[in-house]
Amino acid sequence: MQQPENQSKKYTNLFNDIDTGRIKLPQFQRDFVWGKEKTAKLIDSIIKGYPIGTFIFWKTREELRSFKNLGNIALPEIPKGDAIMYVLDGQQRITSLYAIRKGIRLTREGKEIDYKDISINLETNPDTDEEIVLLDKPEEKPFISVYKLLNGSLTELLNSGYKQEHLEKIETYQKRLTGYDFSIIVIDEYPIEVACDVFTRINTGGEELTLFEIMVAKTYDLPRNFDLSVEYEKVKDNNNGVEKDLEDAGYETIPPVTILQCIAAILCQQIRRQDVLRINKNDFIDAWKIVISSLFTSVDYLRTEMRIPVSKLLPYHTLLVPLTYFFVKNKNNKPTVIQHKLLTQYFYWASLSNRFSSAVESKVASDLKKIESILLEQMPVYRGEEFYVNIEDLKYKWFSTGDAFCSAILCLYAFCEPKSFESNGIVKLDNSNLKSSSSKNYHHFFPRSYLKKQEIPDWQANSILNITLVDDYLNKRQIKAKAPSNYMRQFIKTNKHINDTMKTHLIDNINEYGILDNNYEKFLLKRGERVIEEINKRLHPDVQM
């Protein structure tokens, strides 16, 4: 890696490089946010000869996704075969200067900002401490716009009616602007991950560029018509297109980094950040459609075979990585009976054990070996990693949607396709109603406010075993804070299938579960036994090898 190179450029040379496409703003740069106030102060500093900081450019032959327009000005394409200099530091300053030079108009918050209006007061001494650059053209004072100063010919200026003293000042301002030495540091042919690390350290106050932002820049390929940002948006929501999308499937909360990890798992058998960044652009593009196809097969599998209708119920989005790996290797074929049992075992083992609460990347790499065993219909090795659940683990387990263990129990509840207490109709689960523990689809069977009146502390009341999945109307408008015996007797009258309904909530017998006599302890014990029975079916499947 070469050492950074210090350079200086005059105003004209610097902006000619933008005009010819040799200097670009990479797409991972933040939006242009400077208004006229900061831009005017910047021009004022240059005229007075103040230092304005150093620009840092990354010189490379990689073609990144970059801004194509700036306000009303179309930026040129990259010259074929030429090295490009991407702005890593100084975006706001260089864009402001360019905006004035080109007379750019921007619309922000419904208001148009015209950089042609920034002007110089010709009555003021150039070397005064006062600011001589104005935001708008003054009505009475003699002035010249900075745009005209930089773009007007000598003949135009002489014929504009300026007094001799004003023409002398205009000449001074013009020389100071066009003759200013801009300080530049060029880092030449650094790997993209290093260039992005440089950008992160000097630009965003410690806010690291996301892996997705870097990969959007790195994998951009105009000849192959591949733009990762666009492709991901189509995967997430293709606006009623013919292809599948995650929003229609109820899995729109899957983050882009999960998809990157799926690709890395296939190409590298690792999902570390450095592994993703090392993927060759063409290999990445080649793998995209294959991995996306298997991602959707994974989602379909979770929705149909595992009966997890929406992504908010997933204990970890990371679980989609080994699952997608399975379907890529299995060529999107439906799992055999044995494979299904082993995949289910893996899913609940990883979820209930809170496997991905730490060291996610190394654990996924290890788990891909388990998936290889499942592909061969062989039991994965869990020696030393066995996991068991007993009633004490469940009884007062604090319900939180951010806890993978709780989410795994919710997946069990969802698998039973819970039905409405009132009508026996299927409860529709929706990501928007599953965002937090207080969301509309989550109902405490023994309402917390009711238990509080019975002097039962909240750490006991908010048990995962006290949670049922119901519809919004039932939860907030009919049950409210009523005792279970009260509201359930009402539903017994209106729902002739009530016993079958309750079984879809893993409540097998209303009379035996302490419901009609409001026995909370008995309810937790009986429902806990039922939940453990379902867990054990999954963690310890009967598999004939």
Distance between the termini: 54 Å
What's the overall average pLDDT, rounded?
86
Number of helices: 24
Return the domain count.
Answer: 3
Outline the low-pLDDT stretches: none
Radius of gyration: 32 Å
The major sheet is characterized as: 5 strands, mixed
Describe the global form: elongated
Number of strands: 14
Lateral strand order in the biggest sheet: 1-12-3-6-2
Query: Strand share of the residues?
Result: 5-15%
> What share of residues is helical?
40-55%
Give the helix/strand class.
alpha+beta
Can you give me a brief rundown of this structure?
The protein is an alpha+beta fold. The protein has helices at about 10-20, 35-45, 90-100, 145-150, 155-160, 165-180, 190-205, 210-220, 230-235, 245-250, 255-270, 275-280, 280-305, 320-330, 335-350, 360-375, 390-395, 405-415, 450-455, 460, 470-480, 485-495, 500-505, 520-540, and strands at about 5-10, 25, 55-60, 70, 75, 85-90, 105-110, 110-115, 120, 135, 145, 180-190, 440-445, 465-470.
